[in-house]
Predict the 3D structure of the following.
Amino acid sequence: MHNVHRSDELCSSRNSQPGVIKLKFWTTSINFVTGADNVASLWRCKDLDATAVTTFSLSQFFSTPKQSMRVYLGDDSGISPQPHPNNNISEKNRYYYQNRKAIVGFFNGPGLTSMGNRFSRLLTSAINNLEASDKWINEADLYKFVLKIVIGPAVEAMCGPVLLHENPNFGDDFWKMDHDILYFFKAYPRWLAPSAFRNREKLLKGVKHWHSFARDHFDPSCIESDGHDRFFGSPLMRSRQRYLNRIDFLDADAIASQDLGLLWA
């Protein structure tokens, strides 16, 4: 229990070779695929079954309500446009197909370019706005210093400025959750990691508030020439609101878990 971050080091080690890393936790095994070519091949696979990793991560990492887990556990229709035979999942409840279609379509199309351009502009602005002087400034941890600069532009490029405006400490809270994620991976009880649970609840509450605020204030006239808007951000986040809100048994808490999970992924 003292080595809670050891498995994270195994996955992120500079000395590790691209491939598959298998981690076993009691009766659950999770495979981490590393290397750009391997990940690309995985996404091209039409028979990909993401049920195990989806249910584990949404339940353990992002606190999806139990009543909503039936959506992910019960969808056996596959990820192809043509559903697997002998299933009774309605079109609107085909989560895995709709989710893959939205994400792959966005990142393989012009959406990735527009989001990348926004990130570049926002990051340049953040760097230019840093307080600089002619004297050296000591930073205890250069990596943390960079993370603090990057998180705002990254979140705004995908989700728009409203999420951060409504949740000013979102960046710091997000990196704390990232640091604490292995407590959830190893199913630590709340009493052993109370601050990690409180911080995750704060993040989920903030994402849920953002969704509500954006729905109340969004208007199609807000959409800019590259498809982004200030309330939901990228076209991907708007499309997720449409198809996730139509799925039976996915409530506001479950959709907040979904988007926090996407940001972390």
About this structure: The first strand starts at residue 19 and ends at 25. The CA atoms of residues 15 and 237 lie 35 Å apart. Confidence is low (pLDDT under 50) at residues 1-15.
